[in-house]
Amino acid sequence: MGILSTDFIIFTLGGVGVSLLELVSVLFGLTNVFLAGRGKSINFWFGYVYAILLFTMFIQKHLYSSMLLQPISLAFTILGHYRWTHPAKDEENKKKELKVTVLNNRQRLMFVGGIVLFTVVWGFFMQWISGQFPDVFPPARRPFLDACVMGAMFTAQYLSAQKKLDCWGAWIIVNTTNIILYVSAGLVFMPIVSALYWFNAVLGFNTWKKEWRETKC
After folding, report:
1. How far is the C-alpha of 40 from the C-alpha of 158, rounded, in Å?
2. How far is CA 90 from each of CA 73, 79, 215, rounded to the nearest angstrom?
3. Which neighbouring-strand residues pair with 92?
4. Domain spans in the chain, listed from the N-terminal domain onward
5. Integer Cα distance of 174 and 188 in angstroms
């Protein structure tokens, strides 16, 4: 049994074991979003490691659906790293990095519509694939709610990569829903982690909003 294994339990919380792999993943994830909230492009290096750790953890847990999402998250991380550090001249802030901008109302409606469409399509797909391959993809408890969270998460990751202030609203929705889902599933550690992500999203919004106002002046 390796140290970075989900079977290597280092402590229990509420009767639920927390592995070293899970704890290290959470620490890298929290560091990633904390630095992103401060507008530090170094956050992406932690994001790369975070995606790899999650991929490893989901393989060990046989959560193949969640595992397959990590390459997509990694692609958003690569996109964000490039966009933040290679802005066009009219997109630069004082640090010569990508400045914070906001969506207009039309763009917001387009992203909301995209989340709704994704929720319907992915929700039905999860129901279909669990029926076809029940041993690999057990039936989801709340397929459409899960799909909605996933759509909002991808939206938040894309908007974060583009350094749009609106991304924090999407992250707040994602983490609020995750807290509800984790608590209803009887988990203890992950709701605490999601609460930390939630507070960081609020702080990140305030920090980015300040930068956005300064850029407008």
Report:
1. 17
2. 27, 19, 11
3. 98
4. 9-86+109-216
5. 18
Q: What is the per-residue pLDDT for 133?
A: 76
The answer to which of 11-20, 93-102, 121-130 has the lowest mean pLDDT is: 11-20
34: tokens are 């904390």
Residue 132 near residue 111 (C-beta atoms within 8 A): no
Record the pTM: 0.88
SS3 3: coil
Give the whole-angstrom CA distance, residue 35 versus residue 20: 22
Measured between alpha carbons, how far apart are the two ends of the chain, in Å? 57
DSSP 44-113: HHHHHHHHHHHHHHHHHTT-HHHHHHHHHHHHHHHHHHHHHHS--GGGB-TTSSBPPB---HHHHHHHHH
- By the 8 A CB rule, do 20 and 8 touch? yes
Q: What is each CA distance from 69 to 34, 63, 105, 206, 209, in whole angstroms?
A: 22, 10, 29, 29, 30
**CA separation for the pair 122, 117 (Å, rounded):** 8
> Per the structure block, which two tokens stand in for 151?
């759509």
Query: Tokens 């004082």 — which residue?
Result: 94
Yes or no: say if 21 and 5 are a contact pair by the CB < 8 Å rule. Answer: yes
> Tell me: the pLDDT tens digits for 36-89?
999 999 999 999 999 999 888 878 876 666 677 889 999 999 999 999 999 998
- Evaluate whether 23 touches 10 at the Cβ level (below 8 Å): yes
